Please model this.
Amino acid sequence: MFDSPHQFTPLLPAEAKLEPLLAKAHDLARDALGLVGYPAAELRSLLRSMNSYYSNRIEGQHTRPLELEQALRRDFSMDAKLAARQRLALAHMDAEAAIEARFAGEEAVPGLYQPSAIQDLHAELFGRLPESDRFTDEGEAIVPGQLRQREVQVGLHVAPACASLPLLLEAWGQQYSRVRRGEMTVLALAAAHQRLGWIHPFVDGNGRVMRLHTHAILHALGYTRGLWSPLRGFARSQDRYYALMADADVPRRGDLDGRGNLSEQALIAWIDYVLDICIDQVRFMRGLLDLGQMKSRIAACLTFEEEVRKSGVRRAALIPMHYLFLDGGELERGEFKAMMNLGERTAGTVLAALLERGLLKSDTPQGRLRFAFPLHALRFYFPSLWPEAEADTA
Model:
């Protein structure tokens, strides 16, 4: 049995229906490209952790943020199932970094629509797991990058026959890789996300691959700059995410609902939702990265450490901490201590406390210092960015 590419048309709304979506895509491009870049790799690492948490939470296989932070230190749980989820979280982070490096720049976007690229995304994620972790909940083996070899049904949607997958993925890729540049590429990535779910190419991991694919295209277009991702927004509106994606699987609802096999109105609603999520996440992150507010946020964190936790941290570290945040680079230890304007011994004690609390990082015992973003400081630095992490470390 073979399924025809006609079965998941329209792949994009008709030209006459595009104007409101293109206007919203224009707003997204303006906001995203105007987002102030922040160069610190530590912030990008934090956001990569958050992306992993939220994408896996959509699948019901997430760890708590604190457990993810422990996994980053290679401190895995003794509970086998939790340790497997910790390894999956790390694999997602590493796969995201590898994909961003591989598909960089707008010229890389068409390549992300190649069927082989979709298989590569799956392999990047699941290939990082030990073989013992590569099984579905039902005990079926997950082969990294391998298209499914059996028929499946997801909710009410009967996925196309496995024998049809190469043909359908080829049609999917040809449609979305050839759209005109500019705002149309954003509409294409949103539609492609849903239609890839309709194809359901893998026995497991489809949702994660779909979200990695969307994230990768936004990154390649230069929209995210490592500072935001729609994954947070998808997870925080999870019921709507699933409902709109499933609704776009339904057959056309009468003569006024496009000319394809599936509902054009539902596809438009899905694309509109994705655009809204992206715009919301960009604007939210722009507010958090207001450099004018960061000095007072850092001061609040240091004051809490000094007066409430009594951790040995002092507010006197504000000037060098703020400098490191703005610069996004590193300072010699001697320079940092001098900027605190404390005695040598006291400055050394405060520096040790800052390192102990994870507010600073250094690669070696006497190495240069850089600003860090421990989970316990997020409620001060970036309030409401990752509420689950704030609750986990309160």
Summary: The two ends are 56 Å apart (CA to CA). The chain has a mean pLDDT of 94.
